[in-house]
Write a structure and sequence with these properties.
Blueprint (H helix, E strand, L loop, with lengths): L6 H14 L4 E4 L6 H12 L4 E4 L3 H15 L3 E5 L3 H4 L2 H10 L3 E7 L26 E4 L6 H12 L8 E6 L39 H8 L10 E6 L5 H10 L3 E3 L15 H8 L3 E7 L6 H8 L4 E5 L15 E3 L2 H8 L6 H21 L6 H11 L3 E4 L3 H9 L8 E3 L10 H12 L3 E6 H6 L15 E7 L5 H4 L5 H16 L6 H8 L2 E5 L2 H9 L5 E7 L5 H20 L1
Parallel strand pairs: 1-2, 1-3, 3-4, 4-6, 5-6, 7-8, 7-9, 9-10, 10-11, 12-13, 12-14, 14-15, 15-17, 16-17
Helix pairs in contact: 1-2, 1-6, 2-18, 3-5, 7-11, 9-10, 9-12, 12-21, 13-14, 13-20
Length: 572
């Protein structure tokens, strides 16, 4: 691995081979794992080597690339990040196969060591398109992709055989963002109107357990440590057993919103901001479900100086046996023996710090001008007594930061299998129709626009009781919180970052709602949002919440600073 190519250099070689093979147009759909290729493509466009086209929806991106290949009578390429984004290209690939169109699919992927582990947005991408591609190459991270790209482009063009689609599955390791690379001619971002407003992770279903099993196992638990102790991590699908287990042993519970375990006396709301302060005292980690949301938790689960166990009473679909580092435990007595009790005051330390952090965050958000994602997330959580569906990217993470364990919606859903933003409107529609339970969705504007077609319900079809709360910050806000939003990166590549990752949009959501016959309301204050959500949830409606994406990174910096100060005050 020491002799392997850095991700950006590998991406540059891939782009050079693309341009050398006659690819003039590349359609880019935003994503994190594909970032090295996005930056390399932006460099190539600035140098006049090719033209980029940015699309939010991968399905649309695939057909746009197909059209470019048809119209230009030459190969065109489409780039996606990992996960369901790649699957969105299947219809365009099938059409290109049967119409003999030279379509080059560039699917970014996680490196081999993360495959089969449950790492977020990681699935088996090599061979995904089966017989519909002329060839498919899986290029390992760190290897020169140039020869693979050159051969794939030749295969796409036919050369005596029918032309058609090809797949290049390109794996990249961190870092994914340029660091210290010169770029003398950054591309310009598209003009907007003046008033325009990750990670290795680890579940299965929350398996049922009993109080009797908890009590039987308690007799074999080890003695408490002198200081510190275990924590319980509840990821997606953990279920209420995780909360019962943590409360039974008096352990801090770090529960993601879609775990459906974020309640009880052990639950700590802003846990991810407290791991930097209290994480050193953690001796063991008990995992229920599949955590996918935060880097602090991913870092905790990657630590080799602590014992880690994953409760898995039945096989899970999200990882392959032998690929996870945790000890797999399939029964509660053994899990209790592994966990053991904590040192006196361990849970109380977390609860005191959590309460202080909660108060600090609430005070800070109350003083912010305009509506912010965390404040909206807290209001949506508190106002939802039916089902709640959480969109990927920032909304579910905002809820993870602010949702108080003192209240819990009837049930929380999220598409965390591959954590894509696609299909969220349709998923929520199906949930509401299947259960008859009033359902609220919190999502970002790109997630909404990606599945706007899900608003179409034919005449005579059943209509769900469904309310979509759309936090509209006119683009992809989550990338501003990642490395792409760091001041040094933005100073150098700001225009390209905004175009390729921010993906700015100015869609009139009111007009879109009217076209589909869905009730619409735009709110500008927290009180207005709460009032709109207090009305009976009948039929379908959209609440648009306007927010400012450009100030998001600074806001989260202030939140971290407020939590740090609150923790110091508690400790002092």
């Amino acid at each position: 691995m020491s002799d392997s190519l850095p991700s950006l250099e590998a991406a540059r070689r891939a782009v050079t081979a693309l341009a050398g093979g006659g690819v003039h147009d590349v359609v880019v759909a935003p994503g994190s794992r594909s970032a090295p290729l996005a930056y390399a493509l932006a460099e190539a466009e600035a140098a006049g080597q090719l033209t980029l086209h940015v699309r939010i929806d991968e399905r649309s991106a695939g057909f746009t690339a197909l059209g470019l290949a048809l119209g230009g009578k030459r190969p065109a390429a489409v780039l996606t990040t990992s996960g369901t984004a790649v699957g969105e290209l299947l219809p365009a690939v099938m059409e290109a196969n049967h119409a003999a169109v030279p379509l080059v699919v560039l699917s970014a992927d996680r490196p081999e060591e993360l495959r089969g582990t449950g790492a977020n947005q990681t699935t088996q991408q090599p061979g995904l398109f089966g017989s519909h591609v002329r060839c498919a190459f899986d290029v390992p991270a760190g290897e020169d992709p140039g020869p693979f790209v050159a051969r794939a482009v030749r295969e796409a063009c036919g050369g005596g055989a029918p032309a058609g689609p090809v797949q290049l599955n390109l794996a990249f390791r961190d870092p994914l963002v340029p660091a210290g690379d010169a770029w003398d001619a950054p591309v310009a971002a598209p003009a907007l109107p003046h008033d325009a407003a990750a990670v290795p992770s680890v579940g299965g279903d929350g398996a049922a357990g009993s109080a009797e099993a908890l009590q039987d196992g308690e007799r074999r638990a080890p003695s408490a440590p002198a200081s510190g102790g275990p924590v319980v991590v509840a990821g997606h699908g953990a279920g209420e057993l995780a909360a019962v287990f943590a409360a039974h042993l008096g352990l801090p519970l770090l529960a993601e919103p879609s775990s459906n375990a974020r309640f009880g006396t052990s639950a700590i709301a802003p846990y991810r901001l407290l791991l930097g302060h209290l994480g050193a005292g953690i001796t063991r980690v008990v995992v229920f479900g599949r955590p996918t949301l935060s880097r602090p938790v991913a870092a905790l689960l990657a630590r080799t100086d602590i014992e880690r166990a994953l409760y898995l009473p039945e096989p899970a679909a999200w990882f392959e046996p032998g690929r996870r580092p945790e000890r797999i435990i399939d029964n509660l007595p053994d899990l209790l023996e592994f966990a053991g009790p904590a040192a006196p005051g361990w849970l109380e330390a977390w609860r005191s710090a959590g309460a202080a952090a909660d108060a600090a965050i609430a005070t800070l958000l109350a003083g912010e001008e305009g509506l912010t994602g965390p404040a909206v997330a807290e209001a949506v959580w508190e106002q939802t007594d039916g089902f709640l569906v959480l969109g990927s990217s920032n909304p579910i993470r905002d809820v993870d930061l602010t949702a108080a364990p003192g209240w819990h919606p009837l049930e929380v859903f999220a598409n965390r299998g591959l954590a894509g933003i696609d299909g969220t409107v349709s998923t929520a529609t199906g949930i509401a129709l299947a259960t008859g339970v009033p359902t609220r969705v919190l999502m970002g504007d790109l997630t909404f626009l990606h599945d706007a077609g899900g608003l179409l319900i034919g005449a005579g079809e059943a209509e769900p009781d469904l309310q979509l709360v759309v936090l509209n910050d006119h683009g992809g806000g989550i990338f501003g919180l990642l490395e792409h939003g760091e001041p040094a990166t933005k100073a150098r590549y700001g225009a390209a970052v905004e175009r390729l990752f921010g993906t700015p949009q100015q869609v009139d959501l009111a007009a879109l709602a009217a076209a589909y016959g869905v009730a619409f309301e735009r709110v500008t204050t927290l009180q207005g949002l709460e009032t709109a959500m207090e009305r009976p949830l009948r039929g379908r409606s959209i609440i648009e919440v306007q927010a400012d994406r450009q100030s998001l990174r600074a806001l989260h910096g202030r939140i971290r600073d407020a939590v740090d100060a609150a923790f110091r005050a508690v400790e002092g």
